[in-house]
Fold this protein.
Amino acid sequence: MTKTELTDLYRGYIACLNRQDWPNLGQFVAGDAIHNGRRLGLSGYIAMLERDFSEIPDLYFNVLMLVCDPPYVACRLGFECTPTGRFLGLDVNGRRLSFGENVIYEFRGGKISEVWSVLDKVAIEVQLAGGR
Amino acid sequence: MTKTELTDLYRGYIACLNRQDWPNLGQFVAGDAIHNGRRLGLSGYIAMLERDFSEIPDLYFNVLMLVCDPPYVACRLGFECTPTGRFLGLDVNGRRLSFGENVIYEFRGGKISEVWSVLDKVAIEVQLAGGR
């Protein structure tokens, strides 16, 4: 897959997430996908996302930076959202947060086979403590 | 700069960190470098690293994954190390930790001009709580 094709595919994946279009997620995520070392498979991957949207009703994935080197995509995602209760073990309780996620994806056969994701929990803690 | 050249340059930067070779860090880091939104400059960047090595005497940067798309490099770094006291606001106190960092670099004029780094604090918390 060329860099342009993979970039387009990745943006299609993000659009699918933002539509919460779970019936079509299998176009982008492999049936045996691994997320942060856990073999979730497609159904587990969807369950994870459904939980995310349940905890954060206004969740929206913004692609801030995209680094494409087939078969890998690295991305900085930005979030401006409002978790309703606890999030990452923190009592957010409806405060509006702004934070990033740095995530690397490996694609195989045109689908995401493995994901290494790190959310910027430290940035959230600073905001909850009253900092910027 | 080609992908191969940028990859080699980045690996040279990591080797420089692991040698704690601060007099030569200016070969890799711009004089006005920004790290997670803060304009540290070269001197502030070195001060940050000196503090890291002071808090974590056995700090060593392992490149686990490298995604190169000039002028950007994205990397998953792995750490197996022993912070002596507090680290990221957590009482580590000499426990051995294993965690990752997902980091994206922008290069300008052959040097790192901006860095977006996220350490996997959640993985550290799991280990301190007695999990894997």
